[in-house]
Amino acid sequence: MTEVLVPFDEVVEKFDPALGLEIHVELNTNTKMFCGCPAVFGGEPNTQVCPTCLGLPGAMPVVNGKAVESAIRIGLALNCEIAEWCRFARKNYFYPDMPKNFQTSQYDEPIAFEGYLDVDVEGETFRIEIERAHMEEDTGKSSHVGGSDGRIHGADYSLVDYNRAGIPLIEIVTKPILGTGDKAPLVAKAYVSAIRDLIVALGVSDARMDQGSIRADVNLSLAPKGSGVLGTRSETKNVNSLRSVERAVRFEMARHAGILLGGGAVLQETRHFHENDGSTSSGREKSDAEDYRYFPEPDLVPVAPSREWVEELRATLPENPATKRVRLQGEWGFTDLEMRDTVGAGALDLVEQTVAAGAAPQAARKWWLTELARRANDAGVELTELSVTPAQVAAVQALVDAKTINDKLARQVFDGLLAGEGTPEEIIAARGLAVVSDEGALSAAVDKAIAENPDIADKIRDGKVAAAGALIGAVMKEMRGQADAGRVRELVLEKLA
Length: 497
Ligand SMILES: [Zn+2]
Fold this sequence. Notes:
Layout: H1 8-14, E1 15-26, H2 65-77, E2 81-82, E3 89-92, E4 102-105, E5 112-121, E6 124-137, E7 141-145, E8 157-161, E9 168-174, H3 184-202, E10 214-224, E11 234-239, H4 242-261, E12 269-274, E13 279-285, E14 295-296, H5 307-314, H6 321-332, H7 336-344, H8 348-356, H9 361-379, H10 390-401, H11 407-418, H12 424-431, H13 439-452, H14 454-461, H15 468-478, H16 485-495
Parallel strand pairs: 11-12
Antiparallel strand pairs: 1-9, 1-10, 2-5, 3-4, 3-14, 5-6, 6-9, 7-8, 10-11, 12-13
The chain binds zinc ion.
Zinc ion binds at residues 32, 35, 37, 49-50, 52-53, 166.
């Protein structure tokens, strides 16, 4: 089916978008939600399973206390009420990745409810109301082999790995998010980003969207501008990057508008997102009245966290990431743009740690956002995955400050650090990178450059100081980059004064 996609400007002129986001956070507990199986990512398929998470007859589940603790901390960080008493429920459905034929989840009694999170988009604050955050278990993972795109359609056969079945999840559900207008795609992205930051600050998950430890389902509907009603929504499932969240909203807005302006009706359904072109395609039809025959889980006791415990956990909450950002920006003297770039590059913590290790904030920012960001990009990894530590970056900058090396040589030190050649000092010694501080050698190189470039030298003698750059360049080349450019400049100007 060919879709009519309406240009974004026209969509927001004629319609009000309503967003709804469901985020699944995989907790980083040592063990699964209801059994003692390890909950680590990446084991050989079906090696981290037991009778309980496979749903074998007679196996009895036990709630993971650490998961409950993480759920409460997430709820508190989202300004939620914490239930005094709540239960798990069985969500009954058959699907091959769900070995028990039901998922143990929470239904009408979530552990946390009625919260909010404020997000900033281009200087405007949007309050996202949280309906609930509840505990549940993850499903197994199916892979479909033989098809062109990993989908079940066209596949020769399917495999299922139950290692993930039973890993604790927290599902965070928003209320409908209204009034975002043309900022809807950015608000959705900012919200998921804020949740991720919060989860990282709480330390309750690996928070790796690319590995599925944070997954977002993006609901979108459009209503005629100013009508105040809610339109029929689509639900784009398992969007796994911040950029994709924004693109999915943008695409769905254009698609819904195309249907509505053409006189059609939007189908309430799940959609798949396609990274390659930012489009979505139809999944399965979904009605609100889908009957999972929920009922209270009879094999588990209710969860009744004492108020004392809840208050103890409240005291463990980290500084709110948004508040922290404002504080750090003030301490570092960064402009809004510098701060936004730092956050956008995922370098906030790295810069903070580099500053804590003694580097000036601007120097820390410079290395992480230029040299190291480029290398991470080339290697296709996150900045945090580079084998260079904040302490090493601070050590390299200290050597630059001491004029042992210059910025250009520092880049070669980073090469050495990434190649595991030892400490910055060892790399400088082994690679012979220290700047030449021998004034005699520097002076001779400057004299040589002046002699070889008489026209430029004359210009500088005539007061055209800007021409000095060419001579400095010639000296630096002669010294194979191993000179202090500032000192070379002083020498050039002294000799031609
Ligand atoms: Zn198990």
